Amino acid sequence: MRNTTKITAAVLTTGALTLGLTACGGGDEKAKASDPLIVAATPVPHAEILNYIKDNLAEKEGLKLEVKEFTDYVQPNQATEDGSVGANYFQTQPYLEDFNKKNGTHLASVATVHLEPLGLYSEKLKKADDLKKGATIALPNDADNESRALRFLAANDLITLKKGAEATATPQDIAKNPKDLQFKEVEAAQTPRSLKDVDAAVINGNYAIGADLKPAKDALFLETTKGNDYNNVLAVKEGDEKDPRVQKLAKLLTSPEVKKFIEDKYAGSVLPSF
Q1: 127 to 116, 133, 173: CA distances (angstroms)
Q2: Superkingdom of this entry's organism (predicted)?
Q3: CB of 61 within 8 A of CB of 75?
Q4: What are the start-end ranges of the E strands in the chain?
Q5: 111, 161, 205, 219: which has the highest count of C-beta atoms within 10 A?
Q6: How many angstroms separate the Cα of 119 from the Cα of each of 5, 93, 146, 223, 270?
Q7: Angle at the Cα of 189 (from 124 to 166), degrees rounded to 5?
Q8: Which helix (H) or strand (E) holds 264?
Q9: Residue 55's closest CA among 218, 270, 257?
């Protein structure tokens, strides 16, 4: 009888603990849903778009939104992976996939939002035909953006890439270089600053806009949107795709209001992808 009493007490104690843990877990989930969603973003246009949502749309949707700005392409993903932020909005799908592969991270895209056309810019030239033999062009030095930049130059007949090397192209994969162009590899965020030191630079759209360049007007030529894989995405750590806060933000990022904001504010320099 005494042994039975002990077992029954143990079972009751275990049951109480289980109920307590379940209740606590449910509370945590509920609390998480009401917590602010912190989103890492580069300043332009990503943080601007997010701040438009924060100021105009989020409250009505029941979303508390905090925007944390970064000026590089590495820290936002690291912060998302370690949970310092709940999501990020700054990168293309190919960059995300390459980052996961190289860094062992577990990031997934939730929504496709916009395209920032890559452009060739110069402070010395008025048109690409003015590039002289031996001219120097700055390129972003991360693998994804560099291969994209080289394909961009090839599409505009400045170089020819080796067959089969396009997806991961580096300057070593150039098959033909009629103008003997030289390439200076710099961090993507520094490409606008490099303009004073080179003849031209391939610059990502967000960094061009952040440097007060107007892509639709100032670029010697721009990427086209047709068949372009380089749309910018909202990303989270795998497993957080169904977070109600993330779902609300994804809905707002692809709303008619945000589409109009992008079209009005950026005048073709940023293009909605939805």
Answers
A1: 21, 15, 25
A2: Bacteria
A3: no
A4: 37-41, 65-69, 87-92, 107-115, 119-121, 136-140, 160-161, 174-176, 182-186, 200-203, 221-222, 231-237, 271-272
A5: 205
A6: 78, 19, 13, 6, 12
A7: 85
A8: helix 256-266
A9: 257
**Residues whose CB is less than 8 angstroms from the CB of residue 7 and which lie 6 or more positions away in sequence, other chains included:** none
Q: DSSP class of residue 189?
A: G
pLDDT in tens, 230-271: 999 999 999 999 999 999 999 999 999 999 999 999 988 899
> Which residues does 215 contact at the CB level (< 8 Å), separation at least 6?
116, 117, 119, 205, 208, 209, 222, 268, 269
Question: Based on the number of CB atoms within 10 Å of its own CB, is 70 exposed (0-12), middle (13-18) or buried (19 or more)?
Answer: buried
The two tokens of residue 124 are 């010395």
pLDDT (tens digit per residue) in 107-141: 999 999 999 899 999 999 999 999 999 999 999 99
Helix 244-253, helix 256-266: angle, nearest 10: 50
Q: Indicate the residue type of 150.
A: L
pLDDT at 197 > cutoff 50: yes
Residue-level pLDDT at 246: 98
Burial of 83 per CB tally in 10 Å (0-12, 13-18, 19+):
exposed
Kindly report each contact of residues 259-266 with a partner whose C-beta sits within 8 Å and lies 24 or more positions away, as own/partner. Answer: 261/49, 261/52, 262/45, 262/49, 262/114, 265/45, 265/48, 266/45, 266/209
DSSP secondary structure letter of residue 168: G
For 104-156, where are the alpha helices, taking DSSP H only? 143-155
The model's confidence at residue 37, banded by pLDDT at 50, 70 and 90, is very high
| Coil, strand or helix at 104 | coil
